[in-house]
Amino acid sequence: MNGHLTRHATFREKVTALLSTANNNTYESVTSVQTRLYGPLSLQMSYTATYNELPVISYYKKLNPITAVDLMYKF
Prior knowledge:
The protein is mostly beta strands. The chain has strands spanning 2-4, 9-18, 26-38, 41-52, 63-73. It has one domain. Helix content is 0%, strand content 65%. A hairpin with a 4-residue loop joins strand 1 (2-4) and strand 2. The chain is elongated, with a radius of gyration of 16 Å.
């Protein structure tokens, strides 16, 4: 899902499912907001949540969240 919040800000959401016959399914959701700062500079903030039904290694968590802030330069 993509959408413009303002003239320079964009909202994006992407959901992915990797299905397995061994019930080791993985689901991932990436949500982000990107805005133009000045000229070729942009700022993007994102949140990624990955859920593994059966983690491969026993001490891995089923839900793994990642938060990121990126400063981007467009050539």
